[in-house]
Amino acid sequence: MATDSPDDALVARAQQGDAGAFEELVRLHADRLHAVVQRLVNDEHEAQEITQETFLRAWRGIRGFKGEAQFFTWLYRIGVNEANRRLKRTANAATQRSLEDLTQEPRDPAPGPEGQSEQRDLQTALEAAVRDLHPDYRTPLILRDIEGLSTNEAAAITGLHPAAFKSRLHRARLNVREAVAKYL
Amino acid sequence: MRREHRFSQSHLPAMLDDELTTRQRRRLQAHADDCPECGPVLLDLLRFRRILLGLGRSVGAGSARADGILQYLRTATVIDAQRPGSAS
Hints:
The complex is a heterodimer.
Chain A: H1 7-15, H2 19-41, H3 44-61, H4 71-90, H5 99-104, H6 116-132, H7 135-146, H8 151-158, H9 162-179
Chain B: H1 2-16, H2 22-34, H3 38-57, H4 66-82
Helix pairs in contact in B: 1-2, 1-3, 2-3
């Protein structure tokens, strides 16, 4: 059973059909969920659609939510699954390039100046490297390293066993490091 | 050295995720301080984590997108309610 969270009372009311309580859950989680989905699909319009669809599915399914995980874990799982389903369907080669492609085709060959500018260059390069990861690796990295979720929370969202999740996460981190090597 | 290198390689992910005991962390750190392979990897990945976490924190819990979503939900649930046999 998940520990009590600020969402619990709202979830309980929403499960009784209280639309106002569910609206409050939307207000609490909309921006973060959208940010996660946006990073997954790299498309603002699609991210908006997925976020809307996620909350609609959550509203329709909230009576079936048993509280075994935290509400946001359940919500993110719906969103991440939908995002990955769409990514597989579209199979956008430009957003799923392999690490080999990345190393052969640097995005910005010009080195940045010293200090803060270097840090900004590295941040930009990191964001690009994350975007270019295969979704199987991008999702763990976004949930764990950008969202700051625990390993168990993030693994639950992806539906992976924690050991498999950790393996993918480490691979993703190493791939990102290789992709930004020229900024180091 | 080889034994410590193997230990470092296998425990690096746990180091990054702060899942090592103090003793394990010190052991790995001691090796990484001298190892030309493990040291840079550890430093880089720790640095990346700080930057990436900062990106996530730049998007706080908020509701800037909520109004559009709620409008969508209201429209969609009205449609739901109009379906034959709908409970809502």
